[in-house]
Amino acid sequence: MLNLLAEITTTMQLEWGNAYFGVGTSGGRPALCIFGFPIYFYALFIVTGMALAILIGGLYFKKRGYDPYDITIYALVIIPIGVLCARMYVYIFPWDETHMMSGWSTFFDFRSGGLGIYGGVILGYLAAFVCCKVRKQDFRIIADSIIPGLFLAQSIGRWGNFANQEAFGNLITTDYDAMVNLFSFLGRGRDHGFNGIAVWIDASNAGGVAGWYQATFFYESLCTFIGFLVCVLVLLRSKRYKLGWCAAFYGIYYGIVRLVVEGLRTDSLYLFIGAHKTDIKISQLVSVFTITLGILLLSQIYRKQLHSLYAKLFKSEREQLAKSRWILIPVTVLSLALAVTMFALGGESRFIVGFFATLLCLYSFLGIFALQDRLKLYCANCGKRNLPQGGWQSDRDKYRVQTAVYAVVSAALVAVALFSLIKWGIADGLDNGYVLAVAALLCCVYFVVVKLVPAVKNYISAENKPFESNIHCECGNVYDVKLNAFLLFFFPPKVYPDYGVENLKPWVDPEPQKGKKHKEKT
Predict the structure, then answer these.
(1) Residue 428: pLDDT band by 50, 70, 90 thresholds?
(2) Which residue range is the domain that position 120 belongs to?
(3) Which of 83, 139, 229, 251 would bridge with 132, disulfide CB 3.0–4.6 Å?
(4) How far apart are CA 394 and CA 387, in angstroms?
């Protein structure tokens, strides 16, 4: 044991204290030494952020009616999964071809560094969602309670990048005396220089060129701290607060921040297709997704109000549907033109834009037919909308379409898994090929177990009886309507969930209440 302690302490260069408790560097990184074991400042910043996030989450759990100690359950689920997935993120999307070909042999060497915040956020979000479903709690409340702490944790955690001299931007100058060092009082000379705009990076961490670089870690730290303040002081205190505000704000705000900051960084992770490195910075691509999802969530929260405003542009609901078709036609044509242009110009970034433009084109194209299909519901005589006696559609038609769609998705995931396994895993010898195959198979298992199997069971158990498609309008007109079940799957009837918090009451500890009642009886 003493020999092991001696071996560990030899890696520490102490600047204060002794081998049992001191501060120094280990492997060039600042660390706290406790009984000869170095604990990196990088880890201390991250763990501090996690602890504060748990504390803040518990406070908002209590305010929204949940037991504040429930946050520990979510923390025990989210943090391990988040750390593992943050680690996976830098292996799935490496810096360069060398890191790509080196494989996953060092994956569990966490002390060597390498975490991608987006990986932890995305999979942590999904883990919280699953945990929420198991515990039968409202995920909107859970997400909005966790996100303020997540902002603060990210803000504090970015200072770990400062300690490790990483996550910096472009070179400003190589002259140390050209800029002020606010940390010169530490007496460490040029080590860890910082002034709010730039950070001093030594040659060993900057590709051989020491100098003042853009302090992108600080830009993001400051912006995420502002995001934390906005959540705590503005959004969650507003009398107009709606469930989902914080989640939507995080997606839009942090997505924009990361999109800009990532463009300045020189150590970004890139999207690889097989062994081919694209020109796409993966965090910028993910930022586009988070911004889009945040906007969609915000539109979902105010869906009823948006529909009401849009309806005011038309004289009747029937006219609204009829003219909306003509609005979707140019959207379809423009998105198709954009997709063709991007594919013709070539390049990975343009291919991504073209791919999503194609999806938009297909969705808006289907929307035209969906609107045409809904117009069948309106009476030709009086223009009033009526539903068939059998409802929107028969249960058997509904579950048949669900079965078909989920089966196609599952088959597509299996195809992706096989291609990744055979081409990139076996033929090219890439570890990421096997990882993608496993991920695709896990998604396939999810769709089969959670979506496909219940849809098949419901389809089998549904009564095979004729659909009552006849409609008796109040004006006396009688007509038959059977809507397209496939279009109803992608464009379901309007539903307006309640995102208000008026009925939410703060959590009250039941134990003191029991003691109070017992004292009253005695």
Answers:
(1) confident
(2) 40-169+215-301
(3) 139
(4) 12
